[in-house]
Amino acid sequence: VPAVGDTPPGEPITGGEAVYWALRAIGVRHVFGIISIHNIPIFDAIDRLGAIAHISCRHEQSAAHAADGYARVTGELGVVIASTGPGTTNTATGLLEAGFASSPVLLITGQAASDSLGKSKGYLHEFEQQLSMLRTLAPHAESVSSRGEIMGTVLDVARRILTGRPQPGAVEIPTDIQWARAPERTGQWLAPKPVAPAASTLDRAAELLSTGRRVAIWAGGGVTIAGAGGALTDLAERLNAPVFLTNNARGAMPPGHPLCMGATADLPQAWEIMRAADVMLAVGTRFQWGATANWQAPVPQRLIHLDVDPGVIGVNYTAELPVVGDALVGLEGLLERISPRSADLDFQMLSRNAQAALKETLDLQAGRDYLAIGDAIVRHLPADGVIASDATMAVQMFAQRLLPITRPRSSTTVTSGAIGPGLATALGAAIGSGAPTILIQGDGGLMMSIGELVTISETRAQVIVLVFNDRGYGAIRMLESMSFGERAFATELQTPDFCAIANAMGIGARRVDDSDEFDQAFAQAIADGGPYLLDIDLTKMPSTSPVEWMRRSRAMLEARFEEA
Ligand SMILES: Cc1ncc(C[n+]2csc(CCOP(=O)(O)OP(=O)(O)O)c2C)c(N)n1
Ligand SMILES: [Mg+2]
């Protein structure tokens, strides 16, 4: 049935409409972007045809991060629409982060009109090598060179983005081709199918797991992407195996489960378990830097590595048995082949003790204020709430460790470690989930994307920005203190009045000086129902200082080694 404003059947449609119909065939409901002379026919179609909502971000970097946040909470394609040249170069960091996090993001952009392209004439926004740039960031990037290719190219690129380990993609369409009319209306959307590991490889993996007496599991974002949390939990129970979750896997297993070790694989306290394990099953992970603490984590040599992307297997830790395939199909295949067995009691005791010790250590490390703030968040955030974060010390010090993530796709972190994506990622996550979304944000990173406060205000998406404000680049200040003592450089920032900025953008805001006040203010922000900003003054809470945190952490480690 043609939507309101649709061109009657049989009439030629514009290239912009072809993009619209391709996106509809895929099931796209929201796009994020900025309009331009180079993409106007696409926005025209979106406006007239009505079933896709457009969110006008204030920077294309943010539009890309918002599409990424949207994709992470929904599991659907995140779409960003940008202009040629500057609009597209602005999306670069968003594409980089999406690639790092294996998030399915599609950029649709323009290109100079076909009769000028390739002549270096100085066309408006000219960037003739745009496709080369895009291909370094988004493996699935294509250029369209005729009107008839639009629908097929968008569908094909989307299918490639969503196949196997998701990676971003892009389609660039010259402006004249976006305006050109042709009669085609529908394209065929073939949803990608999960890749099944070879049965013989699963047999060998099951055999190897059965020879292990002390099996540990390392689960990454691939488990979330495949929706394999249930199978992971079943297999862990069958093997009595403690499970380490990377940040992107949090929520795959209930945090209170006796075998769930949470996001702790980077902590020395967790390494005793890995040293004691005789076999490890890694699933949907590439053992990247952060999760492994710079690859110090002692992953056992008897490693079965299940991942849909053969390119990530063996890069960081040699796998005794590579298993290429989808995490869900692979784990289900292992469940069919493995029967329950009794636990090695020493190993079970070791992991129970480590779990308790980790909890105690993490609480002590977090310090009293973060502990109280975390506790207030847990008490007041509704059950469907989403937790987004930027790369701030508050994430390291309490959020990623102590805030329980109880459902898959209910949290986002900046996997590449960039500061700045948080606000837009939270916007996309709030729109995708339709649920209250809190953002753990530093003051430095916030300034990189502050303009999106007005996008949040305009959409009334319930993003609650928690600014952990230490008036500077705290993480770097901490690093400086390790090498340069008291000398801080390039880290002290003049910090604006974030509450005044939020108010000016149409968002309620409140300043918070201590954790009791946080409790009240956060409850009120949630009850308010709309977007909100809390400016949390960390300079009034000494226990939140990263330098102090580092001292506490070291003292604890040393005490442990003395004990041993
Ligand atoms: C895009 C980008 N530029 C620079 C950095 C280096 N960097 C890492 S942490 C940090 C400070 C972040 O400050 P803030 O957001 O206030 O959080 P805090 O560390 O103070 O908690 C900087 C500059 C980075 N990670 N990403
Ligand atoms: Mg800061």
Quick overview of this protein structure:
By secondary structure, the protein is an alpha/beta fold.
Structure characterization notes:
With 564 residues, the protein is an alpha/beta fold. 44% of the residues lie in helices and 15% in strands. The protein has 22 helices and 19 strands. The strands form 4 sheets. Strands 3-2-4-5-7-6 form a 6-stranded parallel β-sheet, sandwiched between helices. α21 links the parallel β18 and β19. α1 crosses α2 and α3 crosses α16. The radius of gyration is 25 Å and the shape is globular. The chain starts with 12 loop residues before the first strand and ends with a helix.
Q: Mean pLDDT score, rounded? A: 94
Q: What does the radius of gyration come to?
A: 25 Å
Strand content: 15-25%
The number of helical elements comes to 22
What is bound: which ligands? thiamine diphosphate, magnesium ion
Shape label: globular
Strand segment count: 19
Q: Strand pairing plus helix content: what structural class? A: alpha/beta
Instruction: Estimate the helix proportion, in percent.
Output: 40-55%
The largest beta-sheet arranges its strands as 3-2-4-5-7-6
Instruction: State the separation between the terminal residues, measured CA to CA.
Output: 72 Å
Low-confidence stretches: none
User: What kind of sheet is the major sheet?
Assistant: 6 strands, parallel
